[in-house]
Amino acid sequence: EVGILAKSYIDQGRLIPDDIMTRLMLDELKGLDRYNWLLDGFPRTVPQAKALDKECQIDTVIDLDVPFETIKCRLTARWIHPASGRVYNLEFSPPKVQGIDDITGEPLVQREDDKPETVTKRLQAYDALTKPVLEYYREKGLLKSFSGTETNKIWPHIYAFLQTKLPDVSQEDAATPR
Fold first, then answer.
1. Cα–Cα distance between 148 and 41 in angstroms, integer?
2. Has residue 82 been placed in a domain?
3. Environment class of residue 1 by beta-carbon count within 10 Å: exposed (0-12), middle (13-18) or buried (19+)?
4. Which CATH number belongs to the domain containing residue 154 in this structure?
């Protein structure tokens, strides 16, 4: 129910309101206090950060400083095969035939939140809301920023940094989403 509500905001190019996002995330984090974990994209606002801080001890915050034009180009070049979830990117992993899934021959679609106008709105909202979050964590001494435009150039630096925080994490474990 909360996920459907959240999707309605995303489809309009709007960020999910703090109360909905915080409820979603804190419910997911219950019971993970024995584990190390990495959140991607949360918290995005200071109220979300403060709510998270009340429930969990945050050790570090990683900021990926990627130019908005790079993000916009990647997202707007993304097309999917809805039935399978296969993802193509017109720039670096295009389908063999433009607009057609390689395996089924069915048409590819662009998600509503990947359309150029929606991406631009989301990036503008994201920038306005997250700058204060970065400052919040910078003031707490928890922020570490990494700048670049290519994953394969940024990741080795992030991995080396994470090794200082979690020395028992292997490269293979770090590459496996959970």
1. 18
2. yes
3. exposed
4. 3.40.50.300
Structural contact between residues 174 and 159, judged by C-beta atoms closer than 8 angstroms: yes
Q: What is the mean pLDDT of the chain?
A: 88
pLDDT at 94: 96
- Whether residue 71 is contained in a domain is answered as yes
What total number of domains does the chain contain?
A: 1
- Please indicate, yes or no, if residue 52 is contained in any of the structural domains: no
The answer to whether 89 and 77 have CB atoms below 8 angstroms apart is yes
- Of 54, 62, 56, 46, which Cα lies nearest the Cα of 131? 46
Range of the domain at 105: 59-164
Give the integer Cα–Cα distance in Å for 142 and 131.
15
**Using one digit for the tens of pLDDT, what is the confidence trace for 18-59?**
988 998 899 888 878 778 888 988 998 999 999 999 988 899
Q: For residue 43, give both structure tokens.
A: 């918290």
Burial (CB count <10 Å: 0-12, 13-18, 19+), residue 73: middle
Q: Which amino acid is at 148?
A: G
- For residue 107, the cross-strand partners are 100
178, pLDDT greater than 60: no
